[in-house]
Amino acid sequence: MQKNRLEAFSDGVLAIIITIMVLELRAPHEATWEGLKDQLPIFCSYLLSFVYVAIYWNNHHHMLHTVHHVNGPVLWANIHLLFWLSLIPFTTSWMGEHPLSSVTGVVYGFSLLMSAVAYMVLQNTIIRSQGEGSVLRQATGKDFKGKISPVLYIAGILLSLVQPLLGDLMYVLVALMWLIPDRRIEKTLPH
């Protein structure tokens, strides 16, 4: 099967995820700086989640450039990833409404952890489908960021149980790590 439908569907779902998140933002009830300040935790959780969804879209886009055909396992692995990403608007909203809560920090971190695991499953499924000489395997190499991210998410979850702000800072750290452009796939593909 060609990859076009998988790309189009994934792009559509990610666009809907971002749309749902932005629709959760509400203007303050009063036109004051204090009213705006009250919305800051909600905006910060939205901003962090927007960055995460953008990182996933960007990496997904690059990863699919290594793929010419998809099979059933790749389709299901992609759906698995989209499922976990689709929970981000819920966890974002909940965390924004209840900043510095251990429960919301843990649940948010869990949604990020499972999204990372699902991305690794998709990546490994594509590599298996490509067989020997996998372009994606060649491009990802040792994949340090991919392997360390789940460890940092678990650390963030555990820190959220003790001090939610430290857990949140761990999630920000992972996002910052992924914001640094990763050119491995671009360097591997023919120009």
TrEMBL record:
The keyword Transport applies. It is found in: Membrane. Pfam families: TMEM175. The chain crosses the membrane at residues 12-28, 40-58, 70-90, 102-122, 151-180. InterPro entries: TMEM175-like (IPR010617). The keyword rRNA processing does not apply. It catalyses: K(+)(in) = K(+)(out). Keywords: Ion channel, Ion transport, Membrane, Potassium, Potassium channel, Potassium transport, Transmembrane, Transmembrane helix, Transport. It is a multi-pass membrane protein. Belongs to the TMEM175 family. This is DUF1211 domain-containing protein.
